[in-house]
Amino acid sequence: MLIIGIAGGTGSGKTTVVNKIIKSLPLGEVAVLPQDSYYKDSSHVPVEERSKINFDEPAAIEWTLLVKQLEELKAGHTIQMPTYSYLTCTRQEETVKVEPRDVVIVEGILVLTDPVLRDMMDVKVFVDADADDRLIRVIARDCVERGRTPQMVLSRYEDVLKPMHSMYIEPSKRYADLIVPQGGNNTVAINLLTDYIESRLLKAKRINN
Fold first, then answer.
1. pTM of the predicted protein model
2. In this structure, are residues 74 and 3 in contact, taking their beta carbons and an 8 Å threshold?
């Protein structure tokens, strides 16, 4: 199993990079564990306080569960991945069945900040993008998917996203084996990454045979 970590700032194009990797490989060869699925449950927090939750710091993630489930996949076991709702800021009752695959991608803004998780990765990728481009994508996404107004997004960007990016996300870039500038638009970097993945998979199959 090849474990790939893909990090980068909010709105940098991580999901686009992940989708392009999946499309370049045979169907059913890739499993994805989004960091967002492992946010700690906040159902015990009063509703009016949940909007103040900082989702951009490592303390918001249940790393032990993510590491445990990744270890289970690596051992050949199927997992029930949790789901999380940004609208209610709570973990949902529904889970997603994830089976072991040749490639497992762990994707999220903070996945390179946790040393235990980082040590499990065979390839570490940081998707980079200009702050202005990331902000535009965040406004578009949060207004449509998370029920926020543009002013709410801008306020959160200034108060939370921007300082947390500088404190946690940007420094994690130094752990990356590959930095992808221009986000999902960098086809050269994405092609290099997928070529490397394919060569690693081919080498592993030869060894096993």
1. 0.86
2. yes
| Long-range contacts of residues 89-94, Cβ cutoff 8 Å, at least 24 apart | 89/42, 89/45, 89/50, 89/51, 89/53, 90/41, 90/42, 90/43, 91/39, 91/40, 91/41, 91/43
pLDDT tens digit sequence for 175-184: 999 999 887 7
3-state SS track over 44-110: CCCHHHHCCCCCCCHHHECHHHHHHHHHHHHCCCCEEEEEEECCCCEEEEEEEEECCCCEEEEECCC
Q: β-strand 90-98 against 79-85: which pairing, if any?
A: antiparallel
**Sign of the C-alpha dihedral computed for residues 154, 156, 159 and 160 taken in this order:** negative
CA distances from 24 to 19, 20, 27, 76, 150 (A): 9, 6, 9, 24, 35
